[in-house]
Amino acid sequence: MASGGGNYRNGTHRSSLKGTTTTSIDRPLSVNSNPSKPALKTKSLSSVGASSGLRKSSPGSLGAAKDDAGVPGRVRVAVRLRPRNAEESAADADFADCVELQPELKRLKLRKNNWDTDTYAFDEVLTEFASQKRVYEVVAKPVVESVLDGYNGTVMAYGQTGTGKTYTLGRLGEEDTADRGIMVRAMEDILADVSPESDSVSVSYLQLYMESLQDLLDPTNDNISIVEDPKSGDVSLPGATVVEIRDQQSFLELLHLGEAHRYAANTKLNTESSRSHAILMVHVKRSVKGREPAHSSENGNSTNMAKSLRPPLVRKGKLIVVDLAGSERIDKSGSEGHTLEEAKSINLSLSALGKCINALAENSAHIPVRDSKLTRLLRDSFGGTARTSLVITIGPSPRHRGETASTIMFGQRAMKVENMLKLKEEFDYKSLARRLDIQLDKLIMEHERKQKAFEDEIERITTDAQVRITEAERNFADAMEKERLKYQKDYMESIKKLEEKWMMNQQKQGGERKEQMVSTAEEVAEVKKLLSKETSLRKAAEEEVNNLKSQLAQLKISEASANSEILKLQKMLEDEAYQKEKLEGEISMLQSQLLQLSFEADETRRRLDRGGPGKVPGGLDSLIAQVRPQLKDSGNGEKASIAKLFEQVGLQKILSLLEAEDADVRIHAVKVVANLAAEETNQQKIVEAGGLTSLLRLLGSSEDETVHRVAAGAIANLAMNETNQELIMSQGGISLLSMTAANAEDPQTLRMVAGAVANLCGNDKLQNKLRGEGGIKALLGMVKCGHPDVLAQVARGIANFAKCESRASTQGSKTGRSLLIEDGALPWIVQNANNDASPIRRHIELALCHLAQHEVNAKDMISGGALWELVRILQECSREDIRTLAHRTLTSSPTFLAELRRLRIDF
Ligand code: ADP
Ligand code: MG
Asked: Where along the chain is composition biased (Polar residues) (predicted)?
């Protein structure tokens, strides 16, 4: 049955003759004109009705219909009347049957009452005399033929219990062959037509009771599910037992078995078989031989390979034989002890079938196929693609007129159901796969055999070759041995021959020898003479050579002594050059000191010039007054006038003013003393008169920075003398000067102090004392003021100190690191080695050269960065003497040389 609306097929030739007698009726279900001819192949039998030619080979009237569109095939309905049974014959003896059959007109008249009947047309009308054989041929045979041709087919019996459904379908006819029913005869025809090699027939047998589908071939299987292919709509029962049928006997046994199981099941369920539906399914699978598939486009000359790869075509027809439950309404009788619910359930499938057939007959939009299991199972049988024959069975008894009428109406409606028959033809990929598998296995076996044969052949050839090789080797060895022996023999023979020859020669030569001996002795004497001559010549030559050699050695000795002389002279020359450089350095220093002194003198003069009369006390006042006009003079007149003043006033008087209570007086006095001290000629007198001591005391006592500055300047001047230097030191000059520096604000004060200390630094004897009293530290302490004049003095002091140290080291009176380095002067030295102010730079450069002359300072100098400065001095210094000094210093120090090599610096 088609599912849903519009999918069913509705016949065009359907009619009911109800109430008429003349309307043309449908074609008979069978046109078999020769029922006695049993041959299944008879075309007249298989072509059931001209309008339903199924075989493609017979185009029939529907040649235009496409294969996949199917062929229209209306449900055929035959009515069969059961003969009166004994009871009916007895009970209804006086009554006529409720139906009257007109088989030749294919009509049935149903008596309504004594005077009125309804007439119905059927595809076939089978009287109570119709034989089982005829019933089969009319009802079932066309369906069976269709199934054998690859269509689905359905044969179904519908009717009241006891009207002969089972008789018609299920009789086994074992006692009387004529009794055989449709199932048995259908199987006989099928088995006769199929070929056991290529085709297969298999069977399932089921019972549907109260919506439960039971397997009659395996009673444990009592709830089989129905599976529908959503695409094709095909229904299958994967859970049902399927038994392959090879002969009729096994089929009969199967039916027996099914019947027994049905009986057992019904006993268990306390029901009768009339309440259940029995369903036999016969699957016929046939391979289509010698025919191209309907949709194949290949022509006849395809290769064997292509053929073998083409899947075989199969047709799968399915015959369903349904022995329905009794159509009577049990809820009406209520006699079987079922509840109403149970009754409904028992009749569910049957009433659903009736509803579907009504819907199909009325061309309804919705066909309630899914309402019951029966309708789902039979969806292809009504409104589907199967060829369907329905036999409705009726009894003659007027007592069951109602049931008979309803059965007739069911049949009438079923006749209106139009199916669209479709060939179930498909490619059998499974069997192709099987066939290919077999082919593949054959090929594998063949290959294996060939492989083995090939390997055997290879082995045979190998063995053969091995044998030949061995043989060849042996032959070769034999030949070699033979050859060897032959040569040995030949050799021995030739040796023998030679020996013989030699013997013969010996004998022959015996006579000739005596003559030869005389001349030989003469030759020997000659040779000896020549030899002795050669020997004496050689001796003479040897003597000559020895002589020359000793001369050469003499020459070499004198050359060596000359060389050492030259070296000595070179060394001396170098020393001289060094001394000269040193002297030059000193000269330049003295020159700078001279410059400085003259500058200071100038300044003193200027100050004196500026200082007005003010509060200068009497004596000094007049002194100044005397001096002033002269001070205005320039040039030499100035010094002369101070000298004059000095003589006029008296040194003692001037010095005493240094301690005057009046500050101004003190300032003037100190300025005068300073001016005097600038003159070398006055210095000794000033010192002798205690001037130096007074000046030093002023540094400590006065708080006036001018006093400090001028006094320091005076001390600085006095400090140029070696004796004065010792004096200054002994009177605590260093600490006084340091203190003055610490309190100074005017850079010029610092310049004076630094100048004084710098002078002290130049004293060889005072080095340790000076350093011990913090002289170096005091010097370094002054650099923070940053004034270039101060820095120049500091640099000069350091250079002086370094020079003295260097001297002491050279003389061996000093060992160990430079005290300058000890006191931390090196960083400042390195920092100012390239100072823009040339006085600073020159002093520092000299200081570095002095420090570098002593290996003991080398390490500190390298780590302090002094080496770079020395290299710079060597390369850049504008003064040649300093450059030379730097060069000598660097080349004479192994430490510096090693470091320079390490840094890959060439100079
Ligand atoms: P159903 O299966 O419809 O209930 P059955 O096939 O069991 O009916 O038949 C009931 C009885 O009637 C059986 O005893 C059967 O042998 C007998 N019977 C039915 N049809 C015929 C017939 N055409 N000829 C002779 N006996 C028949
Ligand atoms: Mg029955």
From this structure: 17-36, 43-60, 296-306
pTM exceeds 0.90, yes or no: no
Q: Please answer whether residues 193 and 148 qualify as being in contact, where contact means their C-beta atoms are separated by less than 8 angstroms.
A: yes
**Could you tell me which of 382, 334, 335, 377 has the C-alpha nearest to residue 355?**
382
**Nearest CA residue ID for atom 23, ligand 1:** 82
Helices marked H in 34-102: 43-46, 86-91
Starting from the CA of residue 393, give the closest ligand. 1
Backbone angles phi, psi at 309, to 5 degrees: -85, -10
Ligand 1: atom nearest CA of 160 is 3
Q: In 10 A of CB 508, how many CB atoms?
A: 9
Question: Would you say residue 348 lies in a domain?
Answer: yes
Mutate to test the pocket of ligand 1, among 79, 81, 82, 171 (most ligand atoms within 8 A of CB): 82
Q: Is residue 324 helix, strand or coil?
A: coil
Flag whether pLDDT at 622 surpasses 90: no
Q: Which pLDDT value is given to residue 38?
A: 38
For residue 204, is it within any domain?
yes
Alpha carbons 585 and 745: distance in angstroms, whole number: 33
For the segment 591-598, the average pLDDT, to the nearest whole number, is 65
* Confidence category of residue 308, pLDDT binned at 50, 70, 90: low
Q: How far is the CA of 170 from the centre of ligand 2 (A)?
A: 8
Sign of torsion, CA 527 530 532 534?
Answer: negative
- pLDDT-derived band at 785 (thresholds 50, 70, 90) equals confident
Who contacts 698 (Cβ-Cβ below 8 Å, separation ≥6)? 658, 666, 670, 707, 708, 711
pLDDT value at position 619? Answer: 42
User: Ligand 1 centre from 168 Cα, in Å?
Assistant: 8
Is 812 annotated in a binding site? The answer is no
pLDDT value of residue 632: 39
CB 130 within 8 A of CB 83: no
**pLDDT (tens digit per residue) in 205-236:** 999 998 999 999 999 998 999 999 888 778 99
Ligand 1: centre distance to CA 508 (Å): 155
CA distance 843 to 755: 13
Q: Where are the alpha helices (DSSP H) in 227-335?
A: 248-269, 304-309, 330-333
From residue 289, alpha-carbon distances to 310, 314, 315 in Å are 13, 9, 11
Number of domains forming the structure of the chain: 1
Type of residue numbered 427: F
Question: Can you give the residue range of the structural domain that contains 411?
Answer: 76-289+311-427
How far is the C-alpha of 309 from the C-alpha of 433, rounded, in Å? Answer: 9
Atom of ligand 1 nearest to the CA of 171: 6
Say if 684 falls within a structural domain. Answer: no
Residue type at 349 in one-letter notation:
S
Question: Cα of 32 to ligand 2 centre, how many Å?
Answer: 28
Q: For residue 145, give the CATH number of its domain.
A: 3.40.850.10
pLDDT at 133 over 70: yes
CB-ligand 1 contact for 162 (6 Å cutoff): yes
Q: Examine residue 83 and state whether it is found in any structural domain, yes or no.
A: yes
* Ligand 1 and 167: CB distance under 6 A: yes
Nearest ligand 1 atom to the CA of 130 is 23
Closest residue (by CA) to atom 22 of ligand 1?
82
What is the reported pLDDT for 14? Answer: 35
CA of 757 to the centre of ligand 1 (A): 160
From atom 25 of ligand 1, which residue's Cα is the shortest distance away? 83
At residue 571's C-alpha, the angle toward residues 567 and 572, to 5°, is 120
CB 398 within 8 A of CB 112: no
Structure tokens at 897: 């040389």
Which strand (E) or helix (H) includes residue 426? strand 425-427
The Cα 399–Cα 439 span in angstroms is: 69
Nearest CA to ligand 1 atom 20: 164
CA gap 710, 669 in Å, rounded: 10
State the CB neighbour count (10 A cutoff) for residue 602. 12
CA of 89 to the centre of ligand 2 (A): 21
